[in-house]
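Async update (no meeting this week)

Hi team, since we skipped the sync, here's where things stand on the single-chain job. The sequence we agreed to prioritize is pasted below, unchanged from the tracker. I ran it this morning and attached the output directly underneath so nobody has to dig for it. Comments welcome in thread, and please keep replies under the output.
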Amino acid sequence: MPDHADPSPPTDPPAWPEDASRPPARTAADGRLRDTGSPMGALASWAVVVGMVALIVLSHAMVGSAAPKPATEPSPTAGVLQIFARYTVGAVETLGAGEQRETMLAQLRPTIDAGVASPDDALRASLVAHGLGDDEWARALLRRITDPGGPDAEPLLADDPALRPAYIAQDADRIQTLLDHGVDSLAPDDRSALLDHHGWFAEFGFTAGAPESDPARRAAVAPAQRTLFAVGALALVGGAGLLAGIVLLIVMLVKVGNGSVRARYARPAPGGSVYLETFAIFLVGFVGLGLIGEAIRRATGVDLSNWLVWLLPLVLLWPVARGARPVEAKYALGWSRGEGALTEIGAGLVGYLAGLPVVALGFGLTVLISIVMSGLTGAQGPPPSHPVVQQAGAGGVWSVLSVYLLASVWAPIVEESVFRGAFFHHLRGRLGPAASATVVGFVFAIIHPQGILLVPPLMALGFVFSMIREWRGSIIGPMAAHAVHNAILVTVLLTALS
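Output:
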């Protein structure tokens, strides 16, 4: 993924395709492609981009900090907490024995505590603690609901006792009975209520004290073991990929240094605005369709958000509608075959592996920021989350299908065409490849709803995708890298929550 001077158009053929059947591309005096648009169009587009990015970031911050109003009936899905809890149970039940079990539980307990932010979370974590045989921990979690002002009750981040529905107090009483007298003391209706409200958490909590051979215990532990194996497989694959990536990155840098690898992307002449306009329209459409989807959900109870976003590819027709020739738009957006689809896909995957060390540095920065924040505040904040975690845990064929389509089809095609296509192309008119990739990566990361802690690795990922575009010219490589990355994460997520 090179970061060097652009190939000189007078001595190298242009990277955009031209032949006798197409009108000639408009070029500047130095031979570079000249984009449609004007300085005023660029200025207006920048104002829209900055405003939309600020609005998206602000909306994410408000959603993350506001105490949600609990629903009348809780969902059995608990997202990130469910992953943390299942991983802990899987590790302790599979790998822990004797004193090692207690040591492992003590090490993993803070992970679950960090995921407890609401009354529902506290109830579910207390069921897990009981199932693991730590009733003292379970009672401490319950006190966060029943005695929030007590001396040993840590306040919940997302809780307003005045907004709690009746089931919170009722379930707390049921779990207290479970802790005091065992599962047999619960009335059938109470057991059913806990199962309906808390799903796997209740199933596991009901098996406290049961031997490993107990069928109910085995059935409750099995999903946790799947989560453990899924996370372990991801760690192994990620570690192997990182080692391979370090080697590939070194080889790539050497080849760039000796000139045997050169960028196939030729930047446009400064000026023009049509591709920045395209990016601005995309952001407006993204926000607007989100508002429309939310209005439909409130009016009908049907969530169409994941389907409405399929209208956004229409934005990519804007350059031609604005006056750009199709051949120019195809080049600017990266819609070219390059050296052939299979070759470009392979190059994209090689570039992705070579970029994993950069992504690893992003994760390292996230860990460092988390440690500093914990040291300054004296408390560990809530873990990063993403709406797709809750959606993946909902189960059902349509839910799984929509997650895969959104993450592994829509995102690679649309996000790459918009971010590494239109936005990157506009920035490259005035900035170098690394600077352009950094700006694109930052905007790409900051508008995602995963939380501020995961901005560094996501920014690094966006940077890597941009450098693949710089290297290959075609957007096929970044699309392939994006699709594989998301498919791996979604598969692990679905396995962990199944």
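Quick observations from my side:
The CA atoms of residues 95 and 174 lie 31 Å apart.
Confidence is low (pLDDT under 50) at residues 2-24.
Reply here if anything looks off.
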